[in-house]
């Protein structure tokens, strides 16, 4: 009687195992099914890269470098193009950003350079061989960009349970909520009807909340500077396309025009005085001047480095001809140096100057995949950092208006900003990156118009004193990447950079270079 019972138990156990196996198989299928969309998405991304964005497959696509640059640009536009509020990035968007960026950046793992090294054999003999190592620019800059990326996401994650909130324009909120109502757009928001209006409590933000905002703004501003430095150095290292060189004017006068050429050739040349004499009232005009000055630099440098012209008058002796050539070369070099100083002064006066025609041409015709990755990655991080700084500045602006509303005569009963009755001057500089942000941020806080409170006051640096984009990346990364975004106050290390005017509606068209 014992054996049959045991046999029955064994049979029952077998049945139970058979019943449990389908459940285990179902779990495996569910897990595999969840990973299938990611695999299909990865196949689609790499198929587009291999085709060079030419879905016909006829070989008319762009080069690999530009395809990767466009892919990174489009991914950023999809996930961060509508950063209108200071709030954490949704988990699905964050995972998508990290996953797809990892796919696009994995190409850099196979970009190496060969260096000589010595290999020792067991018998003690040595042989010089070539070994592979990551390319130096990628080895230095790519980890730095990854760290900047993570820091920006951490800053966004910190905007939880905040004292401020946003109201869509045109939506009236009840006064019972005890808030300061801004039911119309701020002065610099009037043309951006889609932007939500930041709102704060009646008494404004608490000292602790404002201090945290200031700390996050300072840290983000340093990330912006580091990204700009990497982007500028990467662009400077790209080769000048032949198409750009061929399209240059014949001489510097044709490029600059008679007025600027006459000033730049005079003995009393001063870049700042020359800029004061030029109409730079709009972003388009400033960018046009930058393009013309940059073209003249390459015109003069190309003629200096070109072969001497032999069809000169035979009446001159060989020594006179050599002397004339030396004088002409020195003069062209002097003019090129003056043009460089003029371009530098222009960039310092307009720190948010968009990419010039030369920069866009370099991106379009660049064949170096590694430099394309560094340029596009730093550019999108620059855009994201700038948007965060702009949103924080908008919030601090509203907070200052709320706290000092009794001293500003331009606040109506419902808290509307009657900017027509009181002129609050703020500069309208141009955009910092190809990604243009939603609206201009003020160059100073309204609290500076009144007696300063006991609390900390935002410090704004004059845009004319800002450094040029191309300062040394080693110093930038050494100074800025060690910032603790969660604890330490870095306000004593940070100069508030000049804000930039921009438009989110032009993001995709301005960045994507077909």
TrEMBL record:
Region (Disordered): 492-514
Presence of the UniProt keyword Metal-binding in the record: no
Leader sequence segment: none
Domain PRONE positions: 29-409
Database matches in InterPro entries: PRONE_dom, RopGEF
Molecular function via GO: guanyl-nucleotide exchange factor activity
Listed Low complexity bias regions: 497-506
Gene3D superfamilies linked: PRONE domain, subdomain 1 (1.20.58.2010)
Keywords recorded for this protein, A-Z: Guanine-nucleotide releasing factor
A GO cellular-component term linked to this record: plasma membrane
Matches recorded under Pfam families: PRONE
Protein name, UniProt field: PRONE domain-containing protein
Source organism (scientific name): Nyssa sinensis
């Amino acid at each position: 009687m014992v054996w049959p019972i045991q046999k029955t138990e064994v049979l029952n156990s077998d049945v139970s195992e058979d019943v449990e196996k389908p459940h285990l198989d179902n779990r495996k299928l569910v897990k595999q099914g969840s990973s299938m969309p990611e695999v299909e998405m990865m196949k689609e991304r790499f198929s587009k890269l291999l085709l060079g964005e030419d879905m016909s497959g006829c070989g008319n696509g762009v080069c690999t470098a530009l395809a990767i640059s466009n892919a990174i640009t489009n991914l950023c536009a999809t996930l961060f193009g509508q950063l209108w509020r200071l709030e954490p990035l949704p988990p699905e968007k964050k995972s998508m950003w990290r996953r797809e960026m990892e796919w696009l950046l994995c190409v850099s793992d196979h970009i190496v350079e060969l260096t000589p090294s010595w290999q020792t054999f067991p018998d003690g003999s040595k042989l010089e061989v070539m070994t592979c190592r990551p390319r130096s620019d990628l080895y230095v800059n790519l980890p730095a960009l990854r760290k900047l990326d993570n820091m920006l996401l951490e800053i966004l994650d910190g905007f939880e349970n905040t004292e401020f909130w946003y109201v869509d324009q045109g939506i009236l909120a009840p006064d019972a909520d005890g808030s300061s109502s801004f039911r119309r757009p701020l002065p610099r928001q009037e043309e951006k009807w889609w932007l939500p209006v930041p709102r704060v409590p009646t008494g404004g933000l608490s000292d602790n909340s404002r201090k945290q905002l200031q700390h996050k703004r300072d840290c983000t501003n340093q990330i912006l500077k580091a990204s700009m430095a990497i982007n500028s150095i990467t662009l400077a290292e790209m080769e000048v396309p032949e198409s750009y060189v061929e399209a240059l004017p014949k001489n510097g006068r044709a490029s600059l025009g008679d007025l600027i050429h006459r000033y730049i050739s005079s003995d009393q040349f001063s870049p700042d005085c020359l800029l004061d004499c030029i109409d730079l009232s709009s972003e388009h005009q400033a960018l046009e001047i930058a393009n013309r000055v940059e073209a003249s630099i390459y015109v003069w440098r190309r003629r200096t480095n070109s072969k001497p012209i032999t069809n000169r008058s035979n009446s001159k002796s060989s020594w006179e001809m050599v002397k004339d050539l030396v004088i002409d070369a020195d003069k062209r070099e002097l003019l090129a140096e003056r043009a460089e100083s003029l371009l530098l002064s222009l960039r310092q006066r307009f720190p948010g100057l968009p990419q010039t025609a030369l920069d866009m041409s370099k991106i379009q015709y660049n064949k170096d995949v590694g430099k394309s990755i560094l340029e596009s990655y730093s550019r999108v991080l620059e855009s994201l950092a700038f948007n965060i700084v702009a949103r924080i500045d908008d919030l601090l602006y509203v907070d200052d208006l709320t706290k000092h509303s009794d001293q500003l005569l331009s606040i109506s009963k419902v808290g509307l900003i009657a900017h027509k009755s009181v002129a609050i001057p703020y500069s309208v500089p141009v955009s910092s990156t190809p990604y243009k942000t939603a609206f201009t941020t003020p160059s100073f806080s309204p609290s500076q118009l009144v007696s300063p409170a006991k609390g900390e006051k935002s410090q704004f640096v004059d845009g004319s004193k800002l450094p040029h984009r191309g300062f040394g990346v080693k110093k930038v990364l050494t100074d800025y990447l060690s910032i603790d975004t969660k604890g330490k106050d870095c306000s004593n290390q940070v100069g508030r950079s000049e804000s930039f005017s921009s438009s989110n509606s032009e993001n995709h068209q301005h960045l994507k270079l077909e």
